[in-house]
Structure formats: structure tokens, C-alpha cells
Write a structure and sequence with these properties.
single chain; alpha/beta; Rossmann fold; Helicase, Ruva Protein, domain 3; eight-stranded parallel beta sheet; 32% helix
């Protein structure tokens, strides 16, 4: 994607014109003129790139020209980025020498204690070499001159109406729901096969395959069946496993155990016999439904080993399989139950098309309807194609825009083998250049990879795909790009990420993944070392920029081939937990162009136990993930040399003792959740531009040996979720109230109290008052006698959990919270009565007041759990008071002494009532009859 690269280069060149950089330019003869020439040529090239990128699919010569431009642009980016980095680091060193007072006036206000010898100009063999870099710029300028001249021969049209992409983003709370068209017949047939039982049935489990080409909607149909209410109630256990290629029986067995019993320790075994024995016990006599989605090519031995324990299930057990290959059905001996998924009828395709375009089919004008029908005919009955084209038309409101899609030359392409690629290509070309690049980067990961939106945005940032100067706006721009890709159906299976408020995860359809591989060709390479060497893609090493190693081992001779990928910008190693990292790290530091390095989860005898000082040579690095390296105890001081580092992930590095971030002045995202031994993040108080911090531990130790709550005071740009875990007795400063109250961008806060003197809890809680815009709050192990007053003034709070707050005898007035939608109260053993104070009703409102008051105006979900001493729950009788007018779900569990529910509950729009392990309530309501019970659609009362 030359377009985004050229934009990045122009920004780099603009940076060279800044005063503090320009002074260095004057020391090299002729370089200022070279910079001007570069800028002029790049602007001229940028003006024709939109036309060039459209034409490259059909014109090989244009594609070659763009590839040459990409190569030169990458080299130029490396040179300019190195120069800018060295200059700015040198400036910081000089500022430090001038004294702390001078340094404090700089924008970053950060001490940057590099040895002065590292950046002294004019010395031989030093990192910073003005003349060497200037010579590279001159050489690249000559190469760009040839490219600029060659562009004249293509007669490109100039784009003179470039519209800058704005960072504004409308806040959303949900994403589009999945809806299906034209599959009712198939769904009903499959459901009947799943739930029908015969006394003559001998096959356990019965295997039902759904077969169809890619993009036909097999997975969507399976999901529809899997979530059918009749199916849900029919089976004791339902299990969903995404299989994909290759067929790995050990991983499938692990996934089955995980779905049945998440806490089962056997799921971590890599011995197939151990896993199958566990499955055998877990499903013995139980009627189960197992969905094996996207099965490709198991051999008969693999299948027999997997099916063996599943035969121990109860009568009526079923396995639903989705696959593109009928050979799989034959191998499974399931040909008699085969469901062959055919193309959608044109009418259903048209309905899906209009639905995806966010249009009411019945009100579409004749002119648009005629063109829409012609476009849908090109889908050949493929749901994915209809959905993609519909998403493409969502923002096209003029008839000429629809005509342009219908008449596009893309439909004429012969070399694209898969029909679905053509509509995908139309939708792809409608994206902005930067969004295209972000989408293409996703193919760095293998099929069926689960993408995390926040992580993906940070990866895009590391590659400079979010071309905005202000880093806080880059997150917003990244969210815009992500949402755009969702709306255009490039992402699917959208779900919220647990314990990361506002974050979501998703997948990419296999066909879309194939399409992206088709577009990226040689740029991205995934090497799976469990595949035969003959099945691995072998690309030109000079062309590969993004390399992913899957199941890599020391025996795979990484040291032989890895150094050959000199131009790598991304290196990711995944699913390598059982293998040795061996000499890989010393090889990695030779890859000087790296922007992104992901080495999470290396374990075993050769796990990553230390990071060498040589990591300081990776000066371009923006993203570093060392998560789940259990042997890692410390990080080298050279980490501070990574001036450009934006994201540092250290999640579940359980033995890591200390992290020094004083020098990482561009760090914006720091993840340390699960680093239980990490008591000090040195210098974190200086990172006032930090945007994400997932966990902050205040240790028992005092003095300068650990984090202090006051270190958070100036980190007012924090976003997303933050967990504060207090392990000792922090001294609350006089200005403690300002610690959290100014963090207007923080959405979720978790406060956890461990080993704190009970007399200190209230003081600490009062000092941690959050900003009133907070949307989600969790409080654990709080032992103050009452909750802080600020809890009832969080007007934007949507979710609240109070857990194990054992000394609180009275619930706070939560009914005053105007936005609260979900409330869960767990183990508040000091509460014996819940009364009007909980509803937020003042004494004067309980009887005589004539003013109208709504208690819990938006509450939808309410749960009380393990409230042992709780005996009484009362309401209030006042016609001017409305209580919980939106309540849809109430859950009460382990409330052994609660005698009855308040009368006001029967006036709420309750849809589901679930009572368990609460014997008095169970006896009282088990035979629930009458008008008030009839209004509740779902009532579950169980032991």
C-alpha cells in the first residue's frame, strides 16, 4: 500500500524541517536540497496513487511500478526514521546536561539519562552518522527519480480532491446484529435431525455434516441452529469448537474439555490419551451436541482417536460438522445425514443485500431496485458476496454511484478464480488508503485467529498506518477504521472482551482471509512448522515485511533462515508454548527494521529468561509483546534506548520484579496484568501521556521500593480499564482526592483491597473518587463500614459490582444512579436488610412527598449472590415513586435467609427470574401461580 507509506514519508520529511532537526541538517552539505526534492516528488506521486492502485489489479506493469515504489518508500522510511530518532535522542541528552530545570520545561518533562558517548557526533563507528544517512538519502532520491519518471508513461489520473480523514467518532454502545435470510428450511431440517430420537437409534453420536463452498453461510447456519431454544433445552451439554486447517486432534480435544469444564486441569495436557480419557468421563451418559466448525482434512487415524471417547455420550448425542469437502463426510461415515448447502435464491440474496445496505427493501425506488437486482445477480447466490456488496452500498446514496459499481471493470477480471473475490474487491477499493492498509495487515495472523480490537489498533499504530500527529487521536482514528471494516462485513463474530470494558474481539471469514492473502502476495508470510515443508509458502525473503512463526522450534533451524529476512517490520511467534526459544533472540536483534515484535508465551526448558542489552539496537521498534514469558525476571536497561516504543505488553510475566519506564517517553500503552511480583513501575509518574494501563499494584513495602497511589495523579490521559490493587497501607497525601477524579477518559475502574488495615479502607476509598463520567466500577474486598459518598454521584455509571465488602451493613443509595444498567452485589455479609436507602429514596419521600422520583431508572440486570445474613428486602408505598421501570432480569443465589421479594418487583417489566440455593424463597415461590407470575416469561427456581 504505497499511499499510506507516502503519507508517512511526507510527515517524516516535515519533521526534518523542525528547528531542532534542521540545525543538524545544516551540518551536512546538500542534504536540505535533497529533502526538498524528495518532498516534491512524493507529492507528485501521491496525486496519482488512487488511480494506480485501482489499475494494478488489471495491469501488471502498474503493479510492478507500485511494488518498486513500496520498496523505495520502505527503505526511505527506515533512513528518515533513524535520522529523526537519533537527532531527538541527541537533543534530549543535551537538555539533560543543561540541568534538570531546563529539562523540566520541555514538552515531555522526562529525564533521559543516556551515556553521552552513544550520540556524540563525528566519532567513528557511532550509531549516529550524519554523512552516512545523508548518502543514503541521496541514493534513495535517485531511485525515486526513476520511479517518478516512469509514472509518466501510465497516464495516471490525478486525484486533486483528497479529503483528510477526521478523528471524530460517534460513541456507540453496540454493533450490528447477525440476521439470516433464506435458510429456514435448512435450519428446520437440521434442528429436527438434532432433537428427534428413535428407539432404534444405534449411532452414538450421530454425525450431521453441512457441506458447501466458502462464503455459502455454513458457520452462520450452524450458529443459528446451535442457539435455537429447542436445541438449547434438548441437550445436557453443548460444545462449539472451531477446527480449521490443519486438523489437530490434541487441540480439538483440549477445546472440548475447556467448553465442558473450564476449570478442568486436564485441558492443559498435550497427551492425547489423557485428554480422551478426560472427555470420556465428562460426557459419560450425557446427551451432548458438539459442533465441529470448518473441518478440512483429518486422516482416518486422527478421526478415530477423536471420536472414540465421544461414543460414550448418552443416546441422542449429535455432532454437527461444517466443511467444504465431501471427502470429510465420507471419512466420517456420515453420507446418509449430509446437508448440502446450496446457493441462496435471488430474492433472499436481494433481501440480504438491502439489509446489509441498511435500506428498507419495500421502499427502494424502481431505479435503485433495477440496478440493485443486476448487482445481486453477480453474487451467484453467495451470501457472503451479497452481504459484502450490501455493506459497500451503505454510504452510496446517489444513482450514479450504484451505476459505477455495476459497470466496474472488476467484474471482468478472469484471473480471480473465486467468484466471491470480485465483490470483495469492489468493497475493498471503496475503502480509504489507510483503512485498506489496516485491513491487509490482518493477514499477518493465521486463519481463525481471534483479533482483539485494542491490540489491533496498537499494531496499526506501530506500523504508522494511523497517520495522525496526536497519538491520542490515533486511537480514535483506529476505532473509526475498525468500525468501518465491521460495517463493511470484513470482520465477523463480534463479541465483548471480558474485563476490558469497551473492547471487543472478532474474526475474519476464511474467504476474506484468502482474499487478503491474494492482495498482499509476497508481503506477509505465515510459516507453520507443523505442516510439511512442501505445504509451506516460500516467498522471496527481500519482499517479506511481516513474518509469523507458528509452532516454531529450536530444531527448525531458525538461525539458518531468520537472518535472511532483512526487511522485516513485523515478527510474531505464536503457539510455541511447548518449544525452546533457543538462539532466536540473538537473531532477532539483527533485524534492524522491526517495528513490531511479539514473543509471547515461550515456555519449557528453553524459555525466554532474559532480554539482552542488544535489544537497544532496534531503534524503530514501536510494539513489544513479551507476555506470558514465565521465566522472565527483569528487563535490561537498554530497553530505555527504545525511544519510539509505544506499546509494551508484559501480561502474566509472573516472575517479573521491576520495570523501568523513565526513558520510554513515547510509551502510550503499558500492560502488566498478572505480573504478581511486579511491585515497582519506575518512572511511571513521568509518563503523563500514557493512555492505557491495565493494572497498578500498591505493594505492602513502603518507601521508594514500590508504587504509590500518588504516582497516578498526573496520568490524566488514561483510557479504557484500570485495576488498582492495594496490598498494603498507602499514605494518603493531602491532595489524594485528585488522584483519580481528573481522569475523564477512563471508562472502567476496579478497586481491590488486600491486606489493608480495616481503619484505612474508608480513607483510601474517599481518596480514589473517580471522574463522574466513569461507566463501569468494580469494588472488591472493601472493609469500610460504609461506602464513600461519591458512589451515588456517578451519573454515567452503567455497570457496578460490589463483592466481598463484608463490613458494610447498609447498601449505598444506588437508586440515584441515573445511567446504571447492570448491578451485582456479592458476599456483603454485613447486610441483613435492604430497604428504601438502597432505592435512593430520602426519608421525606417515603410517604407524604408529592414530587415524582424514579429509582434505578435504567436498571436492566440485578443480581444478589451469597448474601448469607440477608433476611428482609422491603420497598416503599408511594404512587409518586417509580422503581426499576426497565428491569428485565433478576438473579438471587445463595441467599439462605431471605424471606420474600418486595411487592414492587411485580410491577417491573421483569422477563427472567432466577432463584437458586435460596431455600426459603424456593419453597415460597416454587408453585408460583397467579397473575403476577404469569407476566414473567421465564422463571427458573432450582436447588
Amino acid at each position: 500500500m504505497a499511499g499510506i507509506l507516502v503519507d508517512v514519508l511526507l510527515e517524516r520529511l516535515a519533521t526534518l524541517a523542525l528547528d531542532k532537526v534542521e540545525r543538524e541538517l545544516k551540518l551536512v552539505r546538500g542534504v536540505k536540497q535533497e529533502i526538498k526534492n524528495l518532498t516534491k516528488k512524493l507529492k507528485a506521486i501521491r496525486a496519482v496513487l488512487e488511480d494506480a492502485e485501482q489499475r494494478q489489479v488489471m495491469e501488471a506493469s502498474v503493479k510492478d511500478w507500485l511494488n518498486e515504489l513500496n520498496d523505495v518508500s520502505d527503505d526511505m522510511d527506515d533512513v528518515l526514521d533513524e535520522w529523526i530518532t537519533r537527532v531527538l535522542m541527541h537533543q534530549l541528552e543535551k537538555q539533560e546536561k543543561q540541568g534538570a530545570n531546563a529539562l523540566a520545561t520541555t514538552k515531555k518533562k522526562v529525564c533521559f539519562p543516556f551515556p553521552s558517548s552513544c550520540f556524540r557526533f563525528g566519532q567513528v563507528n557511532q550509531l549516529f552518522r550524519r554523512h552516512e544517512i545523508a548518502a543514503k538519502i541521496k541514493e534513495l532520491n535517485e531511485s525515486l527519480d526513476l520511479i517518478d519518471q516512469n509514472k509518466q508513461s501510465f497516464g495516471f489520473h490525478q486525484n486533486t480532491t483528497r479529503v483528510p480523514e477526521l478523528p471524530q467518532r460517534q460513541k456507540t454502545t453496540s454493533l450490528p446484529n447477525i440476521k439470516t435470510f433464506g435458510r429456514d428450511k435448512e435450519k428446520n431440517l437440521i434442528v429436527s435431525k438434532l432433537i428427534s430420537e428413535s428407539s432404534q437409534e444405534k449411532e452414538v453420536p450421530l454425525i450431521i455434516p453441512i457441506v458447501g463452498m466458502g462464503g455459502m453461510g455454513k458457520t452462520t447456519l450452524a450458529q443459528l441452529v446451535y442457539n435455537d431454544e429447542n436445541v438449547k433445552s434438548h441437550f445436557d451439554k453443548r460444545i462449539w469448537v472451531c477446527v480449521s486447517d490443519p486438523f489437530e486432534e490434541i487441540k480439538i480435544a483440549q477445546a472440548i474439555i475447556e467448553e465442558i469444564d473450564k476449570d478442568n486441569s486436564s485441558k492443559s495436557s498435550n497427551v492425547l490419551q489423557t485428554l480422551t480419557q478426560c472427555i470420556d468421563k465428562l460426557i459419560e451418559g450425557k446427551k451432548f451436541l458438539l459442533v465441529l466448525d470448518d473441518v478440512w482434512s483429518p486422516n482416518s487415524d486422527q478421526w478415530e482417536e477423536l471420536i472414540k471417547p465421544l461414543r460414550n455420550g448418552g443416546i441422542g448425542s449429535r455432532i454437527l460438522v461444517t466443511t467444504r469437502k465431501e471427502e470429510v463426510v465420507t471419512l466420517m461415515k456420515a453420507t446418509t445425514q449430509l446437508i448440502h448447502l446450496k446457493e441462496l435464491g435471488e430474492a433472499f440474496c436481494l433481501s440480504l443485500f438491502y439489509y446489509s445496505a441498511d435500506m428498507d427493501e419495500s421502499s427502494v425506488s424502481t431505479e435503485f431496485k433495477n440496478i440493485g437486482s443486476e448487482i445481486v445477480k453477480r453474487c451467484n447466490g453467495l451470501p457472503l458476496a451479497a452481504k459484502t456488496l450490501g455493506s459497500l452500498m451503505r454510504n452510496k446514496k446517489k444513482i450514479h454511484e450504484w451505476q459505477a459499481v455495476l459497470k466496474s471493470k472488476t467484474w471482468e477480471l478472469k484471473e480471480i478464480q473465486q467468484d466471491v473475490f470480485r465483490p470483495l474487491l469492489l468493497s475493498y477499493h471503496d475503502l480509504s488508503p489507510a483503512t485498506k492498509r489496516c485491513l491487509l495487515y490482518c493477514v499477518t495472523f493465521p486463519k481463525d485467529y481471534v483479533y482483539n480490537r485494542n491490540c489491533l489498533i496498537e499494531l496499526w499504530m506501530s506500523q504508522d498506518y494511523l497517520n495522525v500527529k496526536e497519538s491520542k487521536e490515533k486511537i480514535v482514528v483506529g476505532q473509526n477504521y475498525f468500525d468501518d471494516l465491521v460495517m463493511r462485513s470484513f470482520f465477523q463474530d463480534i463479541e465483548d472482551v471480558q474485563f476490558e470494558y469497551g473492547n471487543i474481539k472478532c474474526k475474519i471469514h476464511d474467504i476474506v482471509h484468502d482474499f487478503l492473502q491474494y492482495l498482499t502476495e509476497n508481503e506477509c508470510l505465515i510459516l507453520d512448522f507443523e505442516l510439511d515443508a512442501s505445504k509451506r509458502r516460500d516467498l522471496s525473503k527481500d519482499k517479506v515485511h511481516h513474518l509469523t512463526l507458528v509452532h516454531a522450534t529450536e530444531g527448525d533451524s531458525l538461525q539458518t533462515f531468520l537472518p535472511n529476512y532483512k526487511k522485516l517490520r513485523t515478527l510474531i511467534a505464536i503457539q510455541s508454548s511447548e518449544y525452546s526459544i533457543g538462539p532466536i533472540f540473538e537473531l532477532i536483534v539483527q533485524l534492524k527494521c522491526l517495528r513490531t515484535l511479539d514473543l509471547r508465551g515461550w515456555r519449557g526448558k528453553g524459555c525466554l529468561k532474559e532480554i539482552r542489552e542488544t535489544i537497544g539496537g532496534l531503534i524503530h521498534l514501536r510494539y513489544l509483546d513479551l507476555s506470558e514469558n514465565l521465566g522472565l525476571e527483569e528487563l535490561p536497561s537498554a530497553l530505555g534506548s527504545l525511544y519510539n516504543l509505544q506499546t509494551l505488553r508484559l501480561v502474566r510475566c509472573v516472575n517479573l520484579k521491576k520495570v523501568d519506564v523513565r526513558r520510554l517517553i513515547n510509551l502510550r500503552h503499558l500492560y502488566v496484568e498478572g505480573c504478581w511480583e511486579l511491585k515497582l513501575i519506575e518512572g511511571i509518574e513521568k509518563l503523563t501521556d500514557l493512555q492505557r494501563l491495565d493494572q497498578f499494584v500498591v505493594p505492602i513495602i513502603g518507601g521508594d521500593e514500590g508504587n504509590k497511589l500518588e504516582h497516578l495523579k498526573d496520568l490524566n490521559q488514561l483510557q479504557g480499564s484500570l485495576a488498582i490493587r492495594i496490598l498494603g497501607n498507602p499514605n494518603m497525601a493531602e491532595n489524594a482526592a485528585a488522584i483519580m477524579v481528573n481522569k475523564a477518559h477512563l471508562l472502567e475502574l476496579r478497586l481491590e483491597f488486600y491486606s489493608v488495615d480495616e481503619g484505612k479502607h474508608g480513607e483510601i476509598m474517599n481518596g480514589l473518587e473517580p471522574h463522574p463520567d466513569l461507566e463501569s466500577l468494580y469494588i472488591w474486598f472493601y472493609k469500610g463500614g460504609a461506602f464513600s459518598h461519591w458512589l451515588s454521584y456517578l451519573h454515567s455509571l452503567r455497570m457496578l459490582i460490589l463483592e466481598t465488602c463484608t463490613k458494610c451493613g447498609v447498601l449505598p443509595p444506588l437508586g440515584k444512579l441515573a445511567s446504571l444498567e447492570s448491578l451485582h452485589i456479592v458476599q456483603l455479609h454485613g447486610v441483613s436488610k435492604v430497604g428504601v436507602e438502597f432505592l435512593g429514596i430520602d426519608d421525606g419521600q417515603t410517604s407524604s412527598s408529592s414530587s415524582i422520583f424514579i429509582s434505578f431508572p435504567k436498571l436492566k440486570q440485578l443480581g444478589f449472590y451469597n448474601m448469607g445474613p440477608w433476611e428482609e428486602w422491603v420497598g416503599v408505598e408511594n404512587n409518586n415513586i417509580t422503581i426499576m421501570p426497565c428491569l428485565s432480569q433478576l438473579t438471587i443465589g445463595y441467599c439462605y435467609k431471605l424471606k420474600a421479594l418486595p411487592d414492587f418487583l411485580w410491577e417491573t417489566p421483569l422477563q427472567k427470574l432466577h432463584i437458586f440455593r435460596s431455600p426459603i424463597l424456593q419453597d415460597l415461590y416454587r408453585q408460583g401461580i397467579g397473575e403476577k407470575w404469569a407476566k414473567i416469561p421465564t422463571i427458573v427456581i432450582e436447588d
